[in-house]
Task: inverse folding
């Protein structure tokens, strides 16, 4: 079986030397490579992080990878995880090793990043109408017979622009496309059958596009996972299925793709879209899950889910730098360090002496973030315990907007020793 990523290019990241570009890391690591650092298996906290610092749990990553792979196998679906979540070739390599069939990207720049590491199967979950991007893509496709990219089309105008740009670039191979469907009031995608049929007909008529399937994004309908909230999601996916049934016989590849599935409703997508085609899900957040949005909404962690689902794999450690008044602590972590677009960080563990304590912060809450400070409202029990200089580990919500704040992230094993340094490319 051919490799989906260039293992040598990924491994070479470990030869990059650590320096002041990478915030949060111990000063003693400056000038060392990731290989040299991890060979010593240092305790990250003892090495002296310049807080705040983002960390990933190796055990949790492995658990989530195995959990998702097993779930997909049992439900007869494939997974093309959304690479925008982490933009990390190292983490993507782990996902490929666990059985992912491709990587999903949101922009042509993200595709370029993953192509720099030899990624051979890409889903671009947008209509690409940028002439410069299409010219680059044409050269990539013509230069590598093993490279395959599938992108969306949702307008006849878009099909025409793509065709013109590809012809102007002298493209040899056609670009594979899926007709994208979208619910009213949400993001991109055809809104009705007539538009979908017209776009499909235009793609079929294009000398430089090849119709291969149907796509949709049900999570744009919202975060409500109650029965009432899931009903419009199911209705939308049912429409995707009906359009797929109609268009599948027209597709120009025997390898018909029907794809949907974010991180909140992939269970419904798998159930509704099962059929005589490749059903491909595109969840990205499952790898780390979180302690907020996806804890509440993922099919494998939300209230009522069976045990054994995903576990949170990401945390940000920060230090108390001020106790200006009773009941309030200020920490060295702000909007430049942690996500705030869905929920504020969740205080979880307090460092007391040489150990982390899991239950000391019950009732405490982050109430505000500045650029570089977190305002932690303390419970009466925690107030006398939390001192200036204390370290606190915070859970996060929506990992996508944490990853993009960190260029090099330590992966730690159960006892806090560093096993890998993960590079991101945002």
Result:
């Amino acid at each position: 079986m051919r490799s989906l990523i260039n293992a040598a290019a990924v491994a070479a990241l470990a030869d990059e030397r650590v320096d002041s570009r990478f915030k949060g890391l111990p000063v003693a690591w400056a000038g060392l490579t990731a290989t040299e650092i991890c060979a010593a298996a240092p305790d990250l906290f003892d090495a002296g992080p310049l807080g705040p610092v983002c960390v990933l749990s190796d055990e949790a990553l492995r658990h989530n990878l195995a959990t998702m792979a097993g779930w997909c196998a049992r439900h007869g679906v494939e997974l093309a995880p959304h690479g925008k979540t982490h933009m990390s070739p190292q983490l993507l390599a782990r996902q490929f090793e666990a059985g992912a069939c491709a990587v999903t990207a949101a922009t042509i720049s993200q595709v370029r990043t993953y192509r720099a590491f030899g990624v051979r199967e890409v889903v671009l979950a947008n209509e690409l109408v940028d002439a410069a991007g299409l010219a680059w893509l044409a050269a990539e496709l013509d230069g590598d017979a093993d490279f395959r990219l599938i992108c969306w089309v949702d307008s006849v105008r878009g099909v025409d622009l793509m065709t013109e740009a590809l012809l102007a670039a002298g493209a040899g191979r056609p670009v594979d496309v899926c007709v994208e469907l979208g619910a009213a009031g949400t993001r991109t995608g055809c809104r009705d059958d007539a538009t979908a049929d017209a776009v499909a007909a235009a793609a079929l008529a294009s000398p430089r596009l090849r119709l291969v399937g149907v796509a949709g994004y049900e999570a744009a309908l919202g975060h409500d996972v109650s029965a009432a909230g899931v009903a419009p999601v199911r209705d939308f996916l049912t429409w995707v299925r009906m359009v797929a049934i109609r268009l599948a016989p027209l597709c120009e590849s025997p390898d018909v793709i029907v794809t949907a599935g974010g991180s909140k409703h992939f269970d419904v997508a798998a159930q509704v879209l099962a059929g005589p085609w490749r059903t491909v899900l595109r969840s990205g957040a499952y790898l780390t899950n979180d302690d907020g949005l996806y804890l509440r909404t993922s099919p494998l962690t939300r209230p009522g889910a069976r045990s054994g689902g995903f576990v949170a794999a990401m945390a940000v450690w920060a230090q108390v730098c001020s106790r200006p008044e009773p009941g309030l602590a200020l920490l060295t972590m702000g909007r430049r360090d942690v996500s705030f677009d869905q929920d504020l960080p969740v205080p979880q563990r307090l460092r007391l002496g040489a150990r982390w304590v899991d239950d000391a912060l019950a009732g405490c809450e982050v109430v505000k973030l500045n650029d570089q400070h977190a305002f932690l409202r303390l419970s009466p029990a925690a107030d006398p315990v939390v001192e200036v200089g204390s370290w606190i580990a915070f859970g996060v919500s929506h990992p996508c907007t944490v990853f993009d704040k960190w260029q090099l992230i330590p992966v730690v094993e159960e006892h806090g020793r560093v096993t890998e340094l993960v590079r991101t490319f945002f």
Notes: The chain has 13 helices and 18 strands. The mean pLDDT is 97. The first strand starts at residue 53 and ends at 57.
